[in-house]
């Protein structure tokens, strides 16, 4: 069953919000967790490569573990979602809820340790956040909003420059692709600013937004609920 225009807009809003969350946690990871990207794995691979070369005392362990955690979580989420239908399904809600719970736990840890966390704890926090982002990336693929991966904007930027701006009639794609780039940028700005108060604050914001997407998506976009309503 195809989504209505309103439902498509809600799905787009949900993925834009999750993209914003990626920007927030990436700012936290890079600025407060030993320069580890928790959502942008391209950045981690580059940092890892330069770190292995011994450049500028860049970290190796943190990016490597974050990469592993992201990949493992994406693998598990892919297996979970593979059996379900395309679009928002109850498995999407479950994965986002687990992500929100993990972010809430990280918020609690951040409240307790504050800015005094040691290297080992920083790596663990970055890895847990990266796992949430890996699962979220697969959720975005399942929901299926074009050009909204929530964790990668490099390909979106290339599409914006190389396809949208070179063709006529690309208004919808222009707005969507630009929205993805703007969302992750705004999230990074917000994350950096919120860190000035306390490391727990951006984690709390990420928790609240992920929870809101899970609840509203389940209530308004769940395929089971939509089918039940249409059958009445």
Walk me through the topology.
Layout: H1 5-32, H2 41-52, H3 61-82, H4 90-113, H5 119-143, H6 154-162, H7 171-194, H8 200-221, H9 223-230
Protein name: DUF1275 family protein
InterPro entries: DUF1275 (IPR010699)
Keywords: Membrane, Transmembrane, Transmembrane helix
Strand residue percentage: under 5%
| Oligomeric organization of the protein chains | single chain
Main β sheet profile: none
Percent of residues in helices: over 70%
Radius of gyration: 18 Å
Number of helices: 9
Strand count: 0
Shape, per Cα inertia axes: globular
Annotated CATH topology: Growth Hormone, Chain: A
What structural class results from the helix and strand content? mainly alpha
Helix/strand order, N-terminal first? HHHHHHHHH
Domains, number: 1
CATH architecture: Up-down Bundle
Low-confidence residue ranges: 224-232
Q: Separation of termini?
A: 14 Å
Give the C-level CATH assignment. Mainly Alpha
What's the pLDDT, averaged over the residues?
83
Pfam family, one: DUF1275
Protein name: DUF1275 family protein
Transmembrane segments: 12-33, 60-81, 93-114, 120-139, 178-197, 203-222
InterPro entries: DUF1275
Write structural notes for this entry:
The chain crosses the membrane at residues 12-33, 60-81, 93-114, 120-139, 178-197, 203-222. This is DUF1275 family protein. The chain has 232 residues and is mainly α. The protein has one domain (5-230): Growth Hormone, Chain: A. It is built from 9 helices and no strands. The protein has helices at residues 5-32, 41-52, 61-82, 90-113, 119-143, 154-162, 171-194, 200-221, 223-230. Residues 224-232 have low confidence and may be disordered.
